[in-house]
Amino acid sequence: MKFGKQPAPVADINEDNLEVHKPKTEAAGVKAVMVALERAVAQAGVTRTAQSLLRLNQRGGFDCPGCAWPESDKKRKAAEFCENGAKAVAEENTLRTVGAEFWAKHSIAELSTKTEYWLGNQGRLSEPVVIREGETHYSPISWNDAFELIGEHIRASTPDRCVFYTSGRTANETAFLYQLFARALGTNNLPDCSNMCHESSGSALNPTIGIGKGTVSLDDIHDAELIFVVGQNPGTNHPRMLSALKECKDKGGKVVAVNPLPEAGLFNFKDPQTVSGVVGGGTPLADEYLQIKVGGDLALFQALGHLLLEAEKQNPGTVVDHDFIAAQTDGFDAYKDARATLDWDETEKATGLTRAQIETVAGMLIKSKASIFCWALGVTQQPHSVDTIKEMVNVLLLQGNFGKPGAGACPVRGHSNVQGDRTMGIWEKPKEWLLTALDNEFGITSPRHHGYDAVESMEAFERNEVDVFVSMGGNFSLACSDTETLEAGMQRIGLTVHISTKPNRSHVVHGRTSLILPTLGRTDKDDKHPKGAQFLSVEDSMSVVHSTQGRLTPVSEHLLAEPVIVARMAEATFGPDHSVDWRGMAEDYDVIRDHIERVLPGFEDFNARVRTKNGFVLPNPPRDTRSFATDIGRGRFTVSPLEYLTPPPGHLVLQTMRSHDQYNTTFYGLDDRYRGISDGRRVILIHPEDLAKSGFQDRELVDVISTFGGVDRRADKFRLVAYPTAKGCAAAYFPEANALVHKENVARESNTPGFKAMFVRFKPHQGGGHRPLRDHE
């Protein structure tokens, strides 16, 4: 461990340094604490680290810029954060800065050769910069000139040739202003990161239970008798969830883990804030682990529904909640008929599981009187994702697992406030009630036609139908699929505007003219206002809205808050006589919240309630009143055909994944500790039997070919690593493997890219092949 502030790395990733160790079987522990502190101090020094971590996820402090897992409304721990939350804060707190000297030194040609790891670790952006057509370097620009440039380009275009992308980090007030700007302009082109992750959840939940969000509270997680964790790696992506699962286990609950990869966080949690987590063996989490094939979840939940109905036949009135079904649902008879029989040979082929394994977990469901299904991107990024989630809802409805303690649906959101952004109106397919409310409140005429989602935006880039692309945070180039096509399309755009905290790949594959506008982060003090310091609000995965306020001195005097940037873009576009008082909202965020209160249901008395100790919880009919605000006023059983991924002969199913040193497209470091992979990222995890069948050797360099619709995609120079993943399946890191996802490989209905649905084969790398094993096994 090295403690002490460190300069930005000079060297980039050298894949030849790859080391492979035995995967871990436990998560967190003292090691997690030490790594978190080491990374934090290296970026920000001791003082800023202490100032920030003590306020992280605390009342009156700031919300973690990482995942959207909720905090307790009761007593909070002094360290109310996880290892990766501390890393996320360290990235934002860093004292490294990127200013005029950096941009003068590094040309776009040079920066295009750098990885996201190198770019992100250079530090915080410290002043606005611009690059114009024909130029080779970004150079400083004043804020006034930047906004004037944006206004000129937007006015020279038409509304539907402008696209406004949103990252989940954006706070509620910013998101509300941002969507208002787009709709006042006349477009619903509002793609966001939900399009790439949980769009399938909303597409399945809205028609079946009447709300696109989860229906549980944190207390429900603690009080559940049975929790399914499906297609999710909480140890890396939502580590604080492990504490909630531990509390459930301590109360006698059981956990079933469903995942193609045997992730450490699914098995044993060593809570570093308890004695047992420091010196003991920790808490075993998964009572059953189903190592399912990628894409086999639909078949699994159809089988579980079948087995529950069969058990009800054997013991009528003991398994199925008939009173609830009769009073609150529709479509049960058709569902019962569809699940009356099951082809077990086909089910075992689809899932890679045995009938005995599935029957065991069905028995756990039968015994449970309060069950929760949690899921994440392992479920949502398949062609049949929406049907899979609907099938999960069917099983929950079958036992009445809505609106009672310890029961419900729990899509675990992967980015802080990605759910809040959607609540605020960031959506390309807005409902009429929202548009009417906006029009009445602001005196505008919102467009009624749907806009572009993320994949449709990429296709519009390719067709040269976008003049202005504004990115509110995020890294669109690396977040979406079909990387080569996407980046070529981005470079056709007339103006790209990136509202960012740190350099990233999207800044390098920019439009003909490009602006980078540096903004305040979650941890930064926002006090350049007539009425003094301002705060913002966020919504977590369980619909709790609460305040967030940074207290650190920003690393540069040239940073502007996101609401201010949006307001000034709007002023530069519309002029001073617009019906919307943009400046008034930018100066006092209470004014924004007053508008939100009058536009959005559930935000009554917003300014008062958000200032209370725990904030407030938004209405949720399935949870609150056991009712369903669908078009028929009932929960809806659905019937879907059996579907699973069937690769061509000689191919495997490839899924993408994050490393433990990564959050979305941000790389904190190069140590995927729990999987035993370090100092390299271009790897393919492959089962040893599949490796042997392929004719390649462990650690051999290959080029990866994916096929979709008769069209091949290629990504070169990956190293095969023997790993205990599900047979027939393989895994590679996001975003390195994004280039293999054809833009038309998407989930039906939600249009979410098929990051977990690639059919791949391997060829020997043309530049060289085998490398001997290292002595780390």
Automatic annotation (TrEMBL):
UniProt GO cellular component terms: membrane
Pfam families recorded: Molybdopterin (PF00384), Molydop_binding (PF01568)
Keywords of this entry: 4Fe-4S, Iron, Iron-sulfur, Metal-binding, Molybdenum, Oxidoreductase
Source organism: Pseudarthrobacter enclensis
Domain Molybdopterin oxidoreductase stretches: 124-490
Name recorded for this polypeptide: Molybdopterin oxidoreductase domain-containing protein
UniProt GO MF annotations: 4 iron, 4 sulfur cluster binding; formate dehydrogenase (NAD+) activity; molybdenum ion binding; molybdopterin cofactor binding
Residues forming coiled coils: none
